[in-house]
């Protein structure tokens, strides 16, 4: 099924690296409201892409900030 | 509400092909692409997860388009010479019509994504089956000399691709201006057939 475009959130972050054991990976993998996520670590903006039915951009920013990373919504 | 904008998506595909052909796979970035399309980086990430995702999706789209075009008016039951000539015509027509797409595919072939792309849909295996059938029928009907697959492929298509490359570059050996004609294609085809037929 096609993802509803309104449920995709795009952020600029400073998540320069991802690994299976990282807090970011673990937290986002285990979050019940996050359907899909990815970080483009090759990009200068380390773009985080999140698909979620219920979360708001603000909540996602808080989650990432709590993990010790900067996070800013891209429009 | 966000609406899927088909025109914008097409613009992204055209510009991505252009940039990858120009800068290569390593020199390409989502930022450069967004700038070239005059759209925000965020919009690009709505459609594609990252550079790899974009390249795989566009690569698969072009590969399907190319393979579908190569088997137009073709059937694996055709006599060998006729079938191969149709393949030549189709492959040449696609290259003449979409030189950028062909150049893009050449870049992608060298990238680590080539296999992912070819395994992304069963359409590619269907295509392989059709070609295999064509070769088997031709061998069975004694219209083709038995030889190793790669040897067959290089003789059957190599001459055409060399000529198409010269054509795309606009020059041949030593920078001599070059334009591929139907006559030249036929001449090369006849030479290839001589090597392939018993």
TrEMBL record, chain A:
This is Uncharacterized protein. It comes from Flavobacterium frigoritolerans. The lineage of its organism: Bacteria, Pseudomonadati, Bacteroidota, Flavobacteriia, Flavobacteriales.
From TrEMBL, chain B:
Residues 29-48 bind DNA. One of its GO terms (molecular function) is DNA binding. Residues 6-66 form the HTH tetR-type domain. Signal peptide: none annotated. This is TetR/AcrR family transcriptional regulator. It comes from Flavobacterium frigoritolerans. SUPFAM superfamilies: Homeodomain-like. InterPro entries: Homeodomain-like_sf (IPR009057), HTH-type_Tx_Regulator (IPR050624), HTH_TetR (IPR001647). The keyword DNA-binding applies. It comes from the Bacteria. Keywords: DNA-binding.
